[in-house]
Amino acid sequence: MERGAKEKNHQLYKPYTNGIIAKDPTSLEEEIKEIRRSGSNKTLDNTPEFELSDIFYFCRKGMETIMDDEVTKRFSAEELESWNLLSRTNYNFQYISLRLTVLWGLGVLIRYCFLLPLRIALAFTGISLLVVGTTVVGYLPNGRFKEFMSKHVHLMCYRICVRALTAIITYHDRENRPRNGGICVANHTSPIDVIILASDGYYAMVGQVHGGLMGVIQRAMVKACPHVWFERSEVKDRHLVSLKKRLVSGHFIVSCILGTCINNTSVMMFKKGSFEIGATVYPVAIKYDPQFGDAFWNSSKYGMVTYLLRMMTSWAIVCSVWYLPPMTREADEDAVQFANRVKSAIARQGGLVDLLWDGGLKREKVKDTFKEEQQKLYSKMIVGNHEDRSRS
Amino acid sequence: MGSRSSHAAVIPNVDSIRRETGFSQASLVRLHHRFRALDRNKKGYLSRMDLQQIGALAVNPLGDRIIESFFPNGSQRVDFPGFVRVLAHFRPVEDEDTDQDPKKPEPLNSRRNKLHYAFQLYDLDRDGKISRHEMLQVLRLMVGVQVTEEQLENIADRTVQEADEDGDGAVSFLEFTKSLEKMDVEQKMSIRILK
């Protein structure tokens, strides 16, 4: 199974084109011209004018977004082209054949009765070792030995956890791995991202405080290594200050936990705080192949433990990690532009769709500036630029 | 075996919806999934707020008009059948639709009904006519602040004049249809749902 997954992983990650509806990526101008052209037999010159049929464009575009829009889609799981025998990824179930159902039943048996206990045992080992190990290391006096032990405890435990999930990870460009004094920024799909990255390098992490089991782990980890955990609504300034101190002392930081959890097929805007610091940014792109198990976590639907169980009862989590060359903020760009640049680099590498929308859109309304742009484009078509105002 | 229920069973009255809208069962399941995704608080119906939360719709200049079309007769909620009924206007026209039994009601995605949907977007007070004033208001929605009042009035006047045949200063649905008779409405007002 592992070999098969590795082979599949080498296929190109084509941009996610599946949706409910077929869309043509044409511009406002082209489409309205098309509509006008099909409605009249007079030759279309470029004189700006209004036609009753123009409304069709906005009408259809609007309806398309009601049926299927990028953001709401990003917040629900991907759909697979062929079924992978996991009922949770099958939205359009119709009873197909007895044979398929039998296969599915067998799959359930294997996954729940054979794989799951194995994985739970491993996970249990990994987590307890992590908690115990980091607590013990915490008692050591600060110094190089502590660093050394902390690093190895972290790495070992994360590697065990990776095995517990049967995560099959392909690393690309490992020469670009983050170095001391830099910030590692990645697109964020689920807490599993952390495990995947942390099993390949020793990071001090920045992230949100969680309750429950996660909280216990977080509190233990922070004894051995100076991670930063904060509340989502807290003002980040003082954390930025401590981040800066951290950088000077030579740790590097994973800041991928700063965004809201989103579906793996796109990259949301990063919180600009991490980009204001002025350190070198090492972008990392993580892309999951949904073929063997869907790693998406819908935080409003499932709790952490349910989510982990879902992960452990899938066939495997297959993903690719690309380490991109380091980037630094240029003199003439501000934090937001820099953030966008990093985001695009990550999206391009992972074949993910680059979205303009902020992850905060899930909780807020959108600005009017985008609407104005559409209105500007359309106005040009019906009244032209200011120079052509001689007619009418 | 077959212990899981088909998702279509979750949709109430799925057969009558299917007959009314012409959507296939698979399409209805997907649209129901979509309906549930939009219905954030799991109320079982959609309010204007739910639709306004769609970012890409909020930046559509006619977004509000489109949202209005889901709430006819002053209602404040739209349930799944109502939701699908509006979307059915955009179903592509297939061959089976054209040789309909004349006794059956016209399918929602007929040319006439598609045109009627577009007509409704202009007809703000739903009186069956697009007055010059209404044309002006809709135009204003589409251009925002980019065009002066004078220019817009000229455009509205000209458009109403060109389409108006009986000289009542407003465009009725018949006149609207006539002015768009050469338009390939079926293609322009259709959205194809993927299998």
TrEMBL record, chain A:
Ranges for domain Phospholipid/glycerol acyltransferase: 182-289
A GO term, aspect molecular function: lysophosphatidic acid acyltransferase activity
Positions of transmembrane segments: 96-114, 120-141, 247-270, 304-324
Location (main, coarse): membrane
Any single GO CC term annotated in Swiss-Prot or TrEMBL for this entry: endoplasmic reticulum
Record's subcellular location: Membrane
Alphabetically ordered keywords of this record: Acyltransferase, Lipid biosynthesis, Lipid metabolism, Membrane, Phospholipid biosynthesis, Phospholipid metabolism, Transferase, Transmembrane, Transmembrane helix
One annotated GO biological process: triglyceride biosynthetic process
SMART domains cross-referenced by the UniProt entry: PlsC
Pathway the protein takes part in: Phospholipid metabolism; Lipid metabolism
Source species, domain of life: Eukaryota
Matching InterPro entries: LPCAT1-like, Plipid/glycerol_acylTrfase
Family recorded in the similarity comment: Belongs to the 1-acyl-sn-glycerol-3-phosphate acyltransferase family.
Listed name of the protein: Glycerol-3-phosphate acyltransferase 4
Gene name as annotated: GPAT4
UniProtKB/TrEMBL annotation, chain B:
Gene Ontology MF terms: calcium ion binding
Protein name according to UniProt: Calcineurin like EF-hand protein 2
Keywords of this entry: Calcium, Cell membrane, Cytoplasm, Lipoprotein, Membrane, Metal-binding, Myristate, Nucleus, Phosphoprotein, Protein transport, Repeat, Transport
Pfam families named among the record's database cross-references: EF-hand_5 (PF13202), EF-hand_7 (PF13499)
Keyword NAD included in the entry's annotation: no
Gene, per the UniProt record: CHP2
Coiled-coil positions: none
Gene Ontology process terms (BP): protein transport; regulation of calcineurin-NFAT signaling cascade; regulation of protein import into nucleus
GO annotations of cellular component type: cytoplasm; nucleus; plasma membrane
Domain EF-hand: 26-61, 110-145, 151-186
Organism: Aotus nancymaae (Ma's night monkey)
Membrane-traversing stretches: none
Main localisation: membrane
Subcellular localization, as worded in the UniProt entry: Cell membrane; Cytoplasm; Nucleus
Keyword Membrane belongs to the record: yes
Similarity field: Belongs to the calcineurin regulatory subunit family. CHP subfamily.
InterPro entries found in the cross-reference section: Calcineurin_B_homologous (IPR051875), EF-hand-dom_pair (IPR011992), EF_Hand_1_Ca_BS (IPR018247), EF_hand_dom (IPR002048)
Matching CDD domains: EFh
